[in-house]
Write a structure and sequence with these properties.
Helix 1 crosses helix 6 and helix 5 packs across helix 6. Helix content is about 40%, strand content about 20%. The structure holds glycinamide ribonucleotide.
Length: about 200
């Protein structure tokens, strides 16, 4: 493959998207970020993409009719010749039917050490609330391939982060981002790009 192209799917603030954008040309060298898609209107992540000169699109997502979002997404991914999909704070679950079309082509960042605090209902701050409630002393982040089981695909990379006395979900979320997510995700994307580039 000449230069693999990625689409980044987001739902909110987009700090993970930002590190991907910032690390283009340094950590991320074997492919390009061609598209950003949000399932939430007005997500700040869309502004980050706009600022970086990357095409950014909002596609409405209705939990009762996820196939409408997925059909539109698929159409756009084909039109833009996208090879890799990055879920970077994308807080909806893609259907089995959709993910089966992109085996080993979708990666997700999850803010815990899978298999702890993952699966349906564990997203964003809820993950850190659950970790604090359980009283774990170590948490972290995981990048994995996406398959039909929520947070169940092959693990690409993990990093542990300490839980400290006095942590709130917000404090812990920030530490997990700074010490794990923002390093792991760009590195994992480069790994996937590199493997694709060398393959064909
Ligand atoms: C991140 O912590 C990410 O790991 C998490 O949402 C946050 C998004 O932040 N994702 C999940 O919980 C997925 N199950 P961001 O929009 O600033 O990147």
């Amino acid at each position: 493959m000449l230069t693999p192209r990625a689409a980044v799917l987001v739902s909110g603030g987009g700090t993970n998207l930002q590190v991907i954008l910032d690390k283009r040309g340094t950590v991320i060298k074997s492919g390009e970020v061609a598209l950003v898609v949000s399932n939430k209107p007005g997500a700040f992540a869309l502004e980050r993409a706009e600022k970086a000169g990357i095409e950014n699109v909002y596609i409405p997502y209705d939990r009762k009719k996820p196939e409408e979002f997925e059909q539109e997404l698929e159409r756009l991914l084909k039109l833009r010749s996208i090879d890799v999909i990055v879920l970077a704070g994308f807080l909806a679950i893609l259907s089995e039917n959709f993910v089966e079309k992109y085996p080993k082509r979708i990666i997700n960042i999850h803010p815990s050490l899978i298999p702890s605090f993952c699966g349906k209902g564990y997203y964003g701050l809820k993950v850190h609330e659950a970790a604090l409630e359980r009283g774990v002393k170590l948490t972290g982040a995981t990048v994995h391939f996406v398959n039909g089981i929520p947070d169940g695909g092959e693990i690409i990379a993990q990093r542990a982060v300490e839980v400290l006395p006095g942590d709130t979900p917000e404090k812990l979320q920030r530490r997990v981002m700074e010490q794990a997510e923002w390093e792991l995700l760009p590195e994992a994307l480069e790994k996937v790009f590199k493997e694709l580039k060398e393959k064909e």
